[in-house]
Amino acid sequence: MIKKLSLVSLFTLFPAPYYFAQTTVFAYLKDAEGKPIERAEVNLKGSEEDVTADKIGYFQFVDIKPGHYQMMITKPNYETKIMEFDVIDDEKRKDLGNVTLYPAIINADQGLTIIENEDDEDGLNGQSSTVGLLQSSQDVFSRIAAFDLGFYWFRPRGIDGRSGETMLNGISMIKLDNGNVDLGNWGGLNEITRYPEISANHSPSEYAFGGNTSVIYKNTKAGEYRKGFQGTYSITNRNYRNRGSLRYSSGMNKKGWAFTLMGARRWAEEGIQEGTFYNAYGTYLGVEKRLNDEHTITFNFIGAPYRRSTASPSTQEIYDYRGVHYNSYWGYQNGKQRSERIRKGFQPIFQVQDFWKINKKSSLWTSLSYQFGKDRGSRLDWQNVQNPSPAYYKNLPSYYDSLDPNASIMGPIGTMTTAQDAYQTSLAAWSSGDRGITQLDWDRLYRRNTQQSSKNYYDQLGKRALYYLVDDVSDDKIWNIATHFIHNFNDNTKLLLNASYQNYRSELYREVKDLLGADFVLNKDPFAATNQPGKSGLFNEGEENVTKKVGDRMTYNYIFRRQEFKINPGLKFSAGRFDIFISGMAGYSNSNREGLFSHYLYKNSKSKGQDYSFWTYGIKGQMIYRLNGRNFFVYNGASYSQAPYLEDIFITPRVNGAVAPNIQNMVVNANDISYVISSPFFKMRLTGYLINTNNETSVQRFFADGIQLSTSDGQGNETSVQSAFVTQIMTDVKKRNLGIELGVDVKVIPTLSLQGLASMGQFTYQNNPITYFASDAAGEFANGLSYMNVGKAYIKNYRQGGTPQKAYSLGLRYNSPKYWWFGANWNYFDDNYLDPSALIRTEYFIQNKNSFTPFVNLTQSELRRVLEPNRLPSSFFFNVNLGKSWVIGKYYVLVSSTVNNILNNRKYITGGFEQTRNAKFPDFAKDMDREFTLFGPKYWYTQGRSYFVNVQFRF
């Protein structure tokens, strides 16, 4: 039960001897104008009950023992405030002064979801949204960047998410295979994980050392949620259409128990992209047991099973025909939509935490976590037939247009015709949206499989699959243990010590999902007869069963293992006008790969390989200089190394244990300095930053023509390979990210604010890294390695891709005293580039295959024209949001809505990649100069106007 302040205040009337035997902590709550805020709820972590501020905003806690405390203040329509303070011996009264609460303009779930695009046929990594990683905070720049720019794939400072830290109940949620965080592990549980503690960018954190893109710490103690029920329903037109959730919290009872349960679902029969669906659940169970005033134990279970389909990137040609919602991954089967790209997974998390107040000055948190489960991603595969994707270049009008008009070819409807007629047929189909040509034809794939005659393959009689569906599976088992120790020497000095250990094991394999009417598929390389004549071509030599059926593993099967230990001491202290925070880090990781298949090309494909160990070190520092109570200078500096992740170390793990050449720790040096103003009517942060990254390893995969590989068998017979799927590796990549950030919030009148943001950066490559490539078409090269050196990639001073390097925002916010609000803002993005492809910027790209000299008549100006950086168009958007809340007795109702891209701009390219299909200059330049380029860049476009309407009810 929440104590009313009038009852709490009675303690002040008790006799003096009783009063002086305890410490009273008190404060006054004010709004941005300095007016009292009444009826705000104040929760003191470690205390059994909450208090409520009175009409003048006053609240207090009595009988507080010496120690370190954290307090959370909540009120509808205001941002949640989290404060920390210390109570020392013989301190009778502690005055926390005036505490300011600021309006929460957008305090409802905004429906920011992760839009994941799978790798397409070229194998380049899809664009991953960073929207879910952007978090709001009291910092004006970060708040605007999260809510107003994050929806459009803006990454502050141009740094990707692999250089940060996300923690859940003291446990790092970073996956050690690639450094990413799978936010889907707690998808839909917004009300459980909403209020994280954040150390922005490379500033030091109390909980972990982190990297460049913030430490985000989420805590889910069951006793800290508001007692009662909270129900939410949302409708939107994004990846999902509907969201419903219900949460119940018991509060802490007299026996020291608290329980919180939540269930959520997000679903859509068809999302905003054509042919996609969404069905995801989220479940949470939290139990907290307070053993005594010094000891608390919590248990948390989080499970979020999901099944959803994904959408494809496209070339500009396809967008011109079919628009931004086109998706090549689906088609009709017996009149029903069916997608080839379906993600399905369930990886539940079990966590136990122990909170121990060792004494008046020290505390220790210990966390144990176990996560397991499978993640599956399906895709269509084929053997000895042409790619059936409607977006495959040979199935587009541009391909037919590139041929001799009178040439006799197989047309788009499967009959012989001339190239000119095929072009007209294809053009008409794509222009009109004939789904028999523009989408997958599942019925045709079944017919092709079932029309095969039964033959004997490896002692099995049946119909071999030409087309079939597979699942790429990762089966994870992850153990974590972590500790967080705090010791307060005095009010001004605090010692911190974090230590963590993670044991990561993931088995990865491909599994037959659907044979599409056939009896089996061969676990054999369909290109072996051409590329590797005389060799078996078997993906797993020596196995008894080469013919695979549904549920059987094929193509690859291996295990990733990694153990990682980190220790992170920190010291925070104040001296005069300075607040200083120093944080250090030392870490050790051990990684290996164990192959379970014996690939026909590689001797090191099977069995456990060598262990690769890396030591890492780092230091971070923050210094705040207080000019006065409203003006500050803030410096953040970091210098650290980061061990390569498993996918950086093992460059072709599906087929062998090859390791990237010269693999080493990435080294980061980051500095920023800010001038901050924080007053009731004016807030500003102006920051300059410089981030240098060295020794980075980059791995990409794609299909290339003109690569000119030569292989030889045991008899010395050579085979020339012109086209192959290749893995490209760049080592010792150097980057520089520098720029200026400005965030401003001005109160024009008490209820109206103007807010603005400017982010101006320059994110470039700083060297010409050595480039290698590997290919199964070649296997091992003459040097005995499975990769070859193709020289330097001349990308120095090219812009990095993936985010706009300039962004601006201007908006207004109106907060009515009657608890409704309205906001609108204009956003502008510029200097957005595609990452430069390395292979086409090497000397290999311009060398004649016979003379190994540059092609005849190749000039610098022509080369410069062809390899010009791929700059994306600038664009602007308008967003609006509004809402209203009601407090009716003990009931609370909130209705909020957001409309992004209100002008329905569909011309903004959020990202993409250059295709490297043509690996030699003449073919590349010829294709580039066509009216319809066959291998132009593939893009992701913004999906047009979107809305999100949210209704919340608490009781």
Automatic annotation (TrEMBL):
InterPro entries: Beta-barrel_TonB_sf, CarboxyPept-like_regulatory. It is found in: Cell outer membrane. The keyword Flavoprotein does not apply. SUPFAM superfamilies: Carboxypeptidase regulatory domain-like, Porins. One of its GO terms (cellular component) is cell outer membrane. Keywords: Cell outer membrane, Membrane, Signal. Residues 1-21 form the signal peptide. This is Carboxypeptidase regulatory-like domain-containing protein. The lineage of its organism: Bacteria, Pseudomonadati, Bacteroidota, Flavobacteriia, Flavobacteriales.
